[in-house]
Amino acid sequence: MTTYSVFIAPFVDYGFMRRALVACLALGLGSAPIGVLLMLRRMSLVGDAMSHAILPGAAVGFLVAGGLSLPAMGLGGLIAGLGVALLSGLISRTTALREDASFATFYLTSLALGVLIVSLRGSNIDLLHVLFGTILAIDATALYLVGGIASFTLIMLALVYRPLVAECFDPGFLRAVAGRGSLYHFLFLFLVVLNLVAGFQALGTLMAVGLMMLPAAVARLWAQSLPAMFVTAAGTAVISGYLGLVASFHYGVASGPAIILTASIIYGVSLLVSPSGALRRLFPRPHYGA
Amino acid sequence: MVRHSRLARRLSARHENLPQGRGRAMGCYIIFETSGQLYQWIDFDVVRRYFSILGDGALLRRAAWRRQRRDRLSLACHSVGRGAAMSETAIKLDNITVAYARHPAVHHVSGSFERGSMTAIAGPNGAGKSTLLKAIMGEIRLAEGSIDRGGLAISDFGYLPQAAEIDRQFPMTVADTVLLGTWRQSGAFRGVQPEAAAKAGQALMAVGLDGFGHRQVGSLSAGQFQRVLFARLLVQDAKVIVLDEPFTAIDARTTRDLLEIVCRWHQDGRTVIAVLHDFDQVRAHFPRTLLLAREAIDWGPTDVAMSSRNLLRARAMAESWDEDALVCEHDRAVAS
């Protein structure tokens, strides 16, 4: 086994591997920065909740299109995700419930509704597909969608970077100087939902968050500044995608979990050896000296 | 304005029986029409002598105001936007009541922060001081009454909220935090100009944090972080400065340095409003005080407002209020 046959040949030989790789690159570049911002807003689990919220919309899209159609399911998922985000925001502003609590209530409702709808018409295979995704089955249409979402995400992030950061860091200040804090908050939630929709074809609704949060956590361990975190997270996501695909090809395991587990391994290693990781705490440098 | 004094005299001669008229503030003058005669370029001081100038250019005849008749006569005055910033009142509270989850926190507060004044808002815990500031900053909707910001937009206000509202774990450098103060110039999208960066550097120097620009805010102590926020306020260059407990949990030396900056803002002619806990600080540095205990106990020169009788009353008020207190029954509450 040469390096070529392990790391490059699968992508040269098989079109589906190439498409999966491109999808992973796009997903990593788009989702990872969003994940960093989610984590910094202490909304890590909100991303998870949101990914479940997408399910009933995707299921309705599945029913309407009469099968697995990413555009229909993506649109349905987008509408459902945004609906839950807006409703949760509304509930937390008008009642005593905090945003995470209202997210939890909505995503459980949504998840149950989604599984119910899929089970009405689809087979178990379809349900598995929606829940866990099939990155190897990505076709050109899906690829354009994923690539388009990633490009849109990066352009939007570049445009509203300053207000997003300000809204994260000091929301009161942004409200006072610009008066449009909640606009950016919802724009951000829109980007989250959009990336989850992109991720769910590849990784399914349950693991779409994986390529957001795991690289973000890795980035937090290695990088100090926000731009460095973005780059680290995107790099981690892309490398996990690539290595995960290679592993799933050679060992014949499901590709989605392989990608996420690769990210988990990187996270585990980072926990030990990163500058703020556990090993450094166990063996502190003496306080003077280099 | 000497060259307009003749017109001014004509107006003052007639002020007793001013019939209907319309006024419009333009620039630093008022165009005023009465008895079909048009008075232009009237010296603002003269107008002010006979009328209360509400923000937004609305005129109210003083005598009428004193009688609390609140009829605006028929001096229908146009709102003039920023032109009215010349009025001496920066912020006018008209009978405002602010409620949190339907429980009123501040009741029926009326009065004004004069332009260029330096006012402390003092009072016992739970008196509604921070709530009042949030209402002034437009963060909470008023249950009743209105706030006239004298033609200033919220973005003309420099607001320092309680530090707890800021995420200090966020990966921001000190320099970036201070540069947020240039928001009015740079906005959400424009680049940071070199002048803005220079200004941020000067501000950091002014608060004694020269050379801290590249540090992460998470690595600063509470006092240093408060200095950073003051530097941001310096860069913001706001006309009105609103501070919510700026010196809580801050060491004595930092407090002294920052108080000095606050006093300098006052000397520059900015309007300063600060919620403070330390009564000695208030007495030593703040010419005016609003003593608040759910309602305004007193609002005026500090030595009068902070009299021991008023302070006792403030405490009694704060203790007699509970969550279920009926709105506006304050007289009974005080009596009991």
Describe this structure in words.
The complex is a heterodimer of chains A (290) and B (336). Chain A has 290 residues and is mainly α. Chain A has helices at residues 3-13, 15-40, 44-65, 70-94, 99-121, 124-132, 140-159, 161-169, 171-177, 181-207, 210-222, 226-251, 255-273, 278-282. Chain A has one domain (21-282): Orthogonal Bundle (ABC transporter involved in vitamin B12 uptake, BtuC). Chain A is 83% helix and 0% strand. The longest helix of chain A has 27 residues, at 181-207. Chain A is globular. The N and C termini of chain A lie far apart (43 Å). The mean pLDDT of chain A is 86. Chain B is α/β, with parallel strands linked by helices and 336 residues long. Chain B has two domains: 2-87, no CATH class; 117-128 and 154-320, 3-Layer(aba) Sandwich (Rossmann fold). Chain B contains 13 helices and 15 strands. The radius of gyration of chain B is 22 Å and the shape is globular. Residues 1-8, 12-46, 52-87 and 331-336 of chain B have low confidence and may be disordered. The chains are: A mainly alpha (290), B alpha/beta (336).
Short description:
By secondary structure, chain A is mainly alpha-helical.
Q: Which tags fit this structure?
A:
heterodimer, A: 290 residues, mainly alpha, ABC transporter involved in vitamin B12 uptake, BtuC, 14 helices, globular, B: 336 residues, alpha/beta, Rossmann fold, 2 domains, six-stranded mixed sheet, four-stranded mixed sheet, 13 helices, disordered N terminus
Low-confidence stretches of chain B: 1-8, 12-46, 52-87, 331-336
The named CATH superfamily of chain A: ABC transporter involved in vitamin B12 uptake, BtuC
- Let me know the largest β-sheet of chain A: none
Return the average pLDDT of chain A rounded to an integer: 86
Give the beta-strand count of chain B. 15
What is the secondary structure topology, with strand pairs?
The complex is a heterodimer of chains A (290) and B (336).
Chain A: H1 3-13, H2 15-40, H3 44-65, H4 70-94, H5 99-121, H6 124-132, H7 140-159, H8 161-169, H9 171-177, H10 181-207, H11 210-222, H12 226-251, H13 255-273, H14 278-282
Chain B: H1 5-13, E1 21-26, E2 29-34, E3 37-42, H2 44-50, E4 51-53, E5 59-61, H3 62-66, E6 75-77, E7 89-100, E8 103-114, E9 118-122, H4 129-136, E10 144-148, E11 157-160, H5 174-179, H6 183-186, H7 194-206, H8 222-236, E12 240-244, H9 252-267, E13 271-275, H10 279-285, E14 288-293, E15 295-301, H11 302-305, H12 308-320, H13 330-335
Parallel strand pairs in B: 1-6, 9-13, 9-14, 11-12, 12-13
Antiparallel strand pairs in B: 1-2, 2-3, 4-5, 7-8, 7-10, 14-15
Helix pairs in contact in B: 7-8, 8-9
